[in-house]
UniProtKB/TrEMBL annotation:
Organism: Streptomyces varsoviensis
Top-level taxonomy: Bacteria, Bacillati, Actinomycetota, Actinomycetes, Kitasatosporales
Disordered, as annotated region: 15-42, 134-161
Alphabetized Pfam families for the sequence: DciA
Family matches, as InterPro entries: DciA-like
Designated name of the protein: RNA-binding protein
Superkingdom of this protein's organism: Bacteria
């Protein structure tokens, strides 16, 4: 009698396994599993939730936070400094924020303010997010010297007509 129960149980499990396989084949023919009334990962999301999910899945939390700071730059440093100094890029590997200033005087001023600014950015973004602020001043015109230079031509710095 126990042998009959064991055989019946094995037959039911085999039938269930075959039924699952048949049901999966049917679903594949119909176009896959359908969502139905229950929520799953394929349901539509609001745009903000979808963007947050993408940022989390890709590991873009730090660059997105730094990008937010670049958008709020004038609030972080004040309107006067923001008028003359603008963030250019953030190097995530070295944790360096590059800032371009419109004059050497403002570049010097920002270099003096850099430690306080790093502390403020790390308080907002999390400890260790920004290690260094690289400040650049305005670049001068490039002067080319060499065999292709025409003698007597001063180029962009020429003031004689």
């Amino acid at each position: 009698m126990d042998l009959a129960r064991v055989a019946l149980r094995a037959a039911k499990e085999q039938a269930r396994a075959r039924g699952d396989a048949v049901q999966q084949k049917r679903q594949a023919r119909r176009g896959g599993v359908r969502s139905g009334a229950r929520a799953d990962g394929r349901d539509p999301l609001p745009l903000g939730a979808a963007i947050n999910r993408l940022i989390t899945e890709r590991g873009w939390e730090t660059p997105a936070a730094v990008g937010g700071v670049m958008g709020r730059w004038s609030q972080m440093v004040g309107p006067e400094v923001a008028q003359h100094c603008e963030p250019q890029r953030y190097d995530e590997d070295a944790r360096v924020l590059s800032v371009l200033c419109d004059s050497t005087a403002w570049a010097t001023q920002l270099r003096l303010l850099a430690p306080q600014l790093v502390a403020r950015l790390n308080a907002d973004l999390g400890p260790g997010t920004v290690r260094l602020i690289k400040v650049s001043g305005p670049g001068g015109p490039g002067r080319r010297y060499g065999p292709l230079r025409a003698p007597g031509s001063r180029g962009r710095g020429d003031t004689y007509g």
